[in-house]
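Dear colleague,

Following up on Tuesday's group meeting, I ran the structure prediction for the two-component complex that the binding team flagged. I've pasted the input sequences exactly as they went in, so you can double-check that nothing got truncated or mislabelled along the way. The C-alpha cells for the whole assembly follow below. Feel free to forward this to whoever is handling the docking comparison.

Inputs:
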Amino acid sequence: MILQADNLTKTFGGLAALKGVSFGIEEGEILGLIGPNGAGKTTLFNVISGFFRPDEGRVVFAGETVSHLKAHNLCLSGLVRTFQVVKPFGNLTALQNVMVGSFLRTADPDLARERALEVMDLVGLLECQDKAAKNLTTSDRKRLEVARALATRPRLLLLDEVMAGLNPTELVQMLEILKRIRDQGVTLLVIEHIMAVIMNISERILVLHHGEKIAEGAPKEVAGDKRVIDAYLGEEYLLA
Amino acid sequence: MSSVRSRSMLCSSISVRSLGVLAAIAVVAAALAFLVHDKFYLHVLIMMLLYAAASSAWNIVGGYAGQLSLGHAAFFGIGAYTSTLLFKDLGFSPWVGMLIGATLAAVVAGAIGYPSFRLRGPFFTLVTIAFAEVLRIVTLYAHDLTQGSMGISVPFRPALRNFVFRGLSNYAYVALAFLVITVLVSLWIENSRLGYYLAALREDEDAAHALGINTTRYKLVAVLVSAFFTAMAGTFYAQYIFFIEPFATFSLDFSVLLAMMAIIGGIGTVWGPVAGAFLVTPLQEVLRAKLGGELQGLDLVVYGAVLIVVVILLPQGIVPSIAAWGKRAFGQREPRPASLKGDP
C-alpha cells in the first residue's frame, strides 16, 4: 500500500463532505474515483494532499502518517495533486511553469530545465515551451497541469478531472500520457466523469456519494453495482 | 532533445545582454559624475541612482513576490537612523552602521512579514503602512534618542571611513555602486530557483503550494532581502543629505514613490524600477526647480499629468512595453524573454 486512508471525515459547517471514507492504493496502480457532483471527490483530494486537515481519521503515505502535513511537505515526500480548475502561472512560459515543479528536486536551473523538458516531451508540450501559459489552449493547459506536477517526481499523483473539456482525439492522447506515467512507476489516483475513460484505464474504481464510499472494486463490478447505478450511472449506462 | 539542450545552456545563467546593459549604465553614470560640475544636475544624478537602487530593492518583494508593500519608508528610516545614531553617539563608521541598520531592518521585516504572510489579501500592505506610521510617531516621541521633530544632523567630517565626502561626484559613485549591487541581486534572483518560486507564488499561491513551495518562507526571504537593501539606501540618504527627521524619512509619500517607480517602469522586472526611477526622479526634481517657485503646486500638477499619460500609454510599464514592441518590430529573433514576466 502506498496510500492508506482511514475513516476520513470532513465537515463544512453542518455539511458532511466526507463521512468515514477508508480505502487504499497499491503501488503502481491506477485507481479511479467517481461520483456525482458534490459527492466529495475534490474534498477527498484536498484532504489527502494536505490542503485541508481531516476532522477525523488519518492518511498514511508510504508508511508514515501524513494527515498533519502541509501540501508543500507532502509534495516533497512524493505526493502531488493537480487542480480541477487548472491553475497555470499565466505570465510565465510553459517551460518556466514546469521548471517550478522540477526545482523541487534541484536548485540548479540547468538541471531543472533539462528535467522539465523531459517531462514536457512525455506529455507532448515541447512545441509550446516558450508560449506564455495563459495563451495555451484548454488541452495544453491540462497537459501543463500534469507536466508541472510530474516534474516534482511524485510517487503518487492525484489528477482532478484532467480529461474534462478535451475533444475525442485529445482524450486518447491524454489516456496514452497517463499510461506512460503509470509505466514509469508513478501511482495514479484519478477523478474523472467520462465513464469510457475511467473504465479503460483504472484497475480499480472507488465510488463516492454524499461523502460516503458506496462501492469499490474492478471497473466491471462497480458498473454493475445497483447502488452505483442508482446514484451515478443511471439506467442508460447499463443499456448502452 | 540534444538541440533543445544546447539551447538551454545558452540562456541558463544571467544573460550577457543584461550584464552589458548594466555595464553601459555604469559607464555613462560614472562619466556624468566625472564630467558634470553643476551641483543641481549632480544632485539629480545622485537621486536617480539612489531611487533606482531603492526601487529595485522594493521590487524584490513588491514585484517578484507580488507582495505590495507601501511601508518601505520604515526600512529606509531604520537604515538612516541606525547608522546616524551609531555614528554620532558612539563613533561607529557609517559603513558599519549601514550593515547593522540593514540587518536590523531585515529582522523587523521578518517580524512584520511572518504574521501577515500567513494571511491572504491586503493584510501585508496594511501592516506595512501602519508599521511605517508607528515608527514615525515613535521616532517623533523618543526625543532623548532621536531629537524628535528637530531631526539629527550628520556631523560633517569628510573621510572615507566616515562616509562623508567633499565632492558631490563621490556620492554619485557610491550611489552607482549601490545600484549595481541591487541590479546584480535582482538578476541573480531572476535566474535562480528563488526567482521562479517568487514568480510562481505571485501568479497562483495554491498552485505554488501544491508544487512543494513553502510560500510563507519564500515571501519572507523576499521581504528580508528587500528590507536589507532599502535600509542601505536609507544610510546613504542620511550621509548625503546630512540631516534626517521623522517626517521625511518615514513618509508614506516615499513608500509610494518606490512602488510607483517600479510600477511605471515595469513591476517584477530587473530594469523596470531602474527605468521608472530614471524617468520619475529627473521629472520631479526639474519640475520642482523650474516650476516650484512660480505657482504653488504647479510642479505637482504637471508631474501628476505626466504620470497619468505614461500609465495610460504603457499600462504594463515602460520596460515590458518596449520589449514587446521590439519583439513585434524585429520578429522572433529576440531570445526568450529574459524576465520571469514571460510574454506580455
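Chain A touches chain B at residues 49, 51, 70-72, 75-76, 80-83, 87-93, 96, 99-101, 103-104, 107, 109-110, 112-114, 117-118, 121, 126, 130-133, 135, 148-149, 152 (CB under 8 Å).

Cheers,
M.
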